[in-house]
Amino acid sequence: MPIFDIEIVRRAGEAVAPGLASRLADALGNALGAAPGKAWVRLRSLAPEAYAESGEGDGRASPVFVTMTASAPPEGEALDRLVAQVTQVVAGLAGRPAENVHVLLQPAAKGRIAFGGKVVK
Predict the structure, then answer these.
(1) What is the pLDDT of residues 14-28, one digit of tens each?
(2) Interior CA angle at 104 toward 14 and 79, to 5°?
(3) Distance, CA of 74 to CA of 108 (rounded, Å)
(4) 40-93, pLDDT tens digit by residue?
(5) Whole-prediction pTM
(6) What gap in Å lies between CA 49 and CA 74, rounded to an integer?
(7) How far is Cα 24 from Cα 22, in angstroms, rounded to an integer?
(8) How far is it, in rounded angstroms, from Cα 45 to Cα 8?
(9) C-alpha gyration radius of the chain
(10) HEC string of 8-56?
(11) CATH number, domain 3-119
């Protein structure tokens, strides 16, 4: 049940490619071995003028921020592999270098998230 909230900082004049959310969901689901319909992506874009890094002036990077929520995220080396897989998939499909993909992992959602009125236990 991984849920990915992905925010792409657009470059000047750049548009988010049609169908990118679907391609990300499929590729992330495949990379994580999720059953069909079990990896979800919410994709947003951020205009370049709405993003800044301290000390960068107009030479801004155009990063991608990925927040992942899972019922029970892995730990240790499995977590390292997961982050590497997510980073590579997102970088490739978003057209960004891996060093510009930033992944935030939410605490385990089990017992804190519900679908259709039923708490995941």
Answers:
(1) 999 999 999 999 999
(2) 120
(3) 9
(4) 999 999 998 899 888 876 666 799 999 999 999 999 999 999 999 999 999 999
(5) 0.92
(6) 36
(7) 5
(8) 5
(9) 15
(10) EECCCCCCCCCCHHHHHHHHHHHHHCCCCCCCEEEEEEECHHHCCCCCC
(11) 3.30.429.10
